[in-house]
Amino acid sequence: MAAEENEGRAAKEHIVWLKLDDYLAMARHARKLAPVEDCGLLAGTEENGVRTVEKVFYLTNVDHSPEHFALDPAEQFAAIKEMRAAGWKLLGNWHSHPASPSRPSEEDKRLAFDSRLSYFILSLNGGEPVLSSFHIEKHTRVSKEDLRIR
Question: What is the pTM of this model?
Answer without folding.
Answer: 0.89
